[in-house]
Amino acid sequence: MNLRIVFSSGVPIYLQLMEQVKHAVETGALRGGDQLPTIRKVAEELAMNPNTVARAYRELEHEGVVEVRHGSGAYVAEPKATPKAAAIHTTGESLREAIEKGILLGLAEPEIRRAFESELLRLSGRAAAARRDT
Amino acid sequence: MSENLISVDGLSKSYGGKRALTGLDLEVPRGAIYGFLGRNGAGKTTTIKLLLGMLRPDCGRIGLFGRAIDSEHASVEARRRIGFVSEEKELYPFMTVAQSIRFLRPFFPSWRRDLEEKYLHLFQLPLRTSIPKLSRGMRTQLMLLLAMARGADLLVMDEPTSGLDPAMTEEVLQGLADLAAGDGATIFFSSHHLPEVEQICDRVCLIDEGRKVIDGVLDDLKAQYRRILLVFDAEAPDRLAELPGIDHLRRSGRTASLLAHQDVDGVIARARELAPCSVEVRPVTLKELFLDQVRGE
Fold this sequence. Notes:
The complex is a heterodimer of chains A (134) and B (297). Chain A has 134 residues and is mainly α. Chain A has helices spanning 13-27, 39-46, 50-62, 83-104, 109-133; strands spanning 66-69, 73-76.
């Protein structure tokens, strides 16, 4: 797996790692049953914090993307019937509507992207706060 | 895992009449790589000297390995378990790498030959080269090796990568990642070099003028802090300064930039009441946090 982390970005590093593992699974670079590199290997190779790698793996396990087998490491989980595919499709539809509306109102692509990212950040901040509160 | 190897409570120190440190609290959990940040003269080295017992605090408490440092005996006991890598990289100039290792070994009954060999191999240190002929990076690596091989549970480092080029810095950071991942070391290091702190630390503490301004898990700070950029039709209103929940405000003509980390939604809602024509929310990097918090408006 070809991991690349932008340490100086404002995006939490464990989230960047999670995204890359998920992306590798989505593109088929990683398949069910494949072993992920050990926490130590990732930490050493990228010269990054092992606790942060562990946190990413823990969250991935929590989301059902990987399985952690005690003593032998983390493995990509066998894909289950994905109820997410439908959700992604529906979300895509709604986004298309919003984007079309933006275009009608005369916005250019970078403006729409900024508006989207700004809203996403606002919501993800709220979601993170909700997780902390529970 | 929740055990704190360092816990500092209300630490203050003055030199003559000059305050160097004011009421500092710190908690460094076992297994952390902890970045201690601040400008030059912010109080970093003073804190390290207090931790190592090289200075006495005016007031406040220091706990190491879960025990209060309240006597000379406790101090010596705890500090036996700390490896210190100073900014000056003090080593005997008349010795070679091999001699330095052989010289130090008998002082420490818990010396770990396995770690000595491992880091000699990892850092590829030239055994027969004399200390003055080593590069600065190699000297740092030798200090790390000596600190680890003596069986230290806690490494305290003052500006460990100062004067190193990017390649050497990366090697030192890889060494630190390895120490933490493989050998369970807890690492506390001071720095004003943000990129390396962002890369290797899971926790950071920022001090300025002897006071703590931010501390926490770095990824959590990144998730909490937001920059809110506002554009107004006219001059950005004065009332922005009174908005509750803002950590930092910068105004420039018709634009304003707010920094917030608590109730960001609420801050945005209140900012919207001032009728800006544009509101943008962005993530915040450690560099921005550092500059906003130590520079003021």
